[in-house]
Design a protein that fits this description.
With 359 residues, this protein is α+β, with helices and mostly antiparallel strands. 25% of the residues lie in helices and 30% in strands. The chain has 9 helices and 15 strands. The chain has helices spanning 19-28, 51-58, 61-64, 76-91, 140-155, 170-178, 207-211, 273-285, 349-358; strands at 36-37, 42-45, 95-104, 107-119, 124-131, 160-166, 182-191, 196-206, 230-238, 245-249, 260-261, 264-266, 295-303, 308-316, 330-334. A hairpin with a 4-residue loop joins strand 4 and strand 5 (124-131). Helix 2 crosses helix 4. The longest helix has 16 residues, at 76-91.
């Protein structure tokens, strides 16, 4: 998924036969899952050895009555089957049902579960969670749900998350609002444990809700009344010898995490776009670029809620080194005709058609 030369300063290398199709395929596959950590807990795939602890926690009327798809009583056999199914769905990238575990002394303790069902067609993830009654009131659900929501939007091809909560479950409603979800409507759902329909509230959250808007330092220059601060950003379309364009996925922890963009970054005070890109490409990708290799191509002008972004886009076909995601970002070499298949920030989208027609 990377290209370039480690020694030759002239250009990137042509990939071997079949590498292009393989790189495109890998970019769209779900990432391999590694356990997620929070300040107090670990979110990891469920294991067969979790069966007894899980059964003890969830076979509790006070827990199951709030979960639409969980029956009561909840047998041990159901726990065995469900754990097996979670592994299969995780490997297929269809759902991420995870154990929430903490530490009691030197022992790992199961305290609940958090999950996300993925609809790849609509690019929506459905979030759910439950916590064993003895662990209620300790912020477990908030910590676990927030962590999985951030990871999902940063690493999966999702545009938004949704969740549904019984109106009689104020604690869970508070959790969703606390981590950034917005109430969007109401309805009814059948709750298996209760054997009847009950009213529910529907919630959703996008990247702005979970990660917030990018911060921008207001300009010290006089501004027109009602004007937004101006953010200057420089971006670069690296093009390899096979005509593919490098995209970088914003990692978890950054605003707009999970979206694909052209490498680059904010311009420092007094910095030219060319100097900005030379610095940013070295910091982000570990490659060396000279100003002579940067060709001005187009620019984007976009009004975000809190600032106005102006972003010149440069083309570069020559660099030294092999692009590597030094800030934890995933990289993908993409055919111009496939760029539109990658979710991008609003400011980047108009540049895609220009690149597609030019390259």
């Amino acid at each position: 998924m990377t290209a370039g030369s480690s020694k030759a300063p002239a250009r990137s290398r042509r990939p071997p036969a079949g590498a292009t199709a393989q790189a495109d395929l890998l970019a769209k596959q779900p990432p391999p899952f590694e356990a997620l950590s929070t300040e107090r807990f670990t979110l990891r795939p469920l294991r067969p050895e979790d069966t007894d602890a899980l059964h003890r926690l969830i076979n509790d009327w006070e827990v199951t009555r709030t979960l639409a798809l969980v029956p009561y009583p909840y047998s041990r056999e159901l726990a065995v089957d469900w754990i097996a199914s979670t592994r299969q769905r995780l490997e297929a990238g269809e759902a991420y049902h995870l154990a929430i575990t903490g530490r009691e002394g030197s022992d790992e303790t199961l305290v609940g579960a958090v999950g996300l069902r993925v609809d790849s067609k609509t690019r929506i993830g459905s979030l759910g969670y439950w916590v064993g009654r003895r662990f209620w009131g300790h912020g477990v659900a908030t910590e676990a749900a927030a962590r999985l929501a951030r990871w999902a939007l940063a690493n999966l091809d999702l545009d938004r998350l949704v969740a549904t909560v019984a109106t009689a479950n104020p604690a869970s409603i508070a959790v969703l609002k606390r981590i950034g979800f917005r109430e969007t409507g109401a309805g009814v759902e059948t709750f298996l444990a209760r054997g009847a329909e009950h009213p529910v509230l529907r919630f959703e959250a996008g990247r702005d809700d979970i990660f917030g808007h990018p911060e921008v330092t207001p300009s010290a220059s006089p501004q027109a009344e009602g004007a937004k601060p101006l953010m200057l950003v420089a971006a670069c379309a690296l093009i390899d010898s096979d005509g593919r364009v490098l995209l970088a996925r914003r990692p978890e922890g950054k605003t707009l995490a999970g979206l694909w963009e052209f490498p680059g970054g904010k311009m420092l005070d007094g910095e030219t776009p060319e100097h900005c890109l030379i610095r940013e490409l070295k910091e982000e990708l570990g490659i060396d670029v000279t100003g002579a290799c940067l060709a001005p191509f187009a620019f984007a002008s976009h009004a975000y809620p809190r600032f106005h972004l102006l972003m010149p886009l440069y083309l570069c076909r020559r660099w030294t080194g092999r692009p590597t995601g030094r800030e934890g970002q995933t990289l993908a070499w993409v055919r111009p005709g496939k760029l539109a298949e990658y979710a991008m920030p609003e400011a980047d989208k108009p540049l895609v058609s220009l690149l597609r027609d030019f390259i």
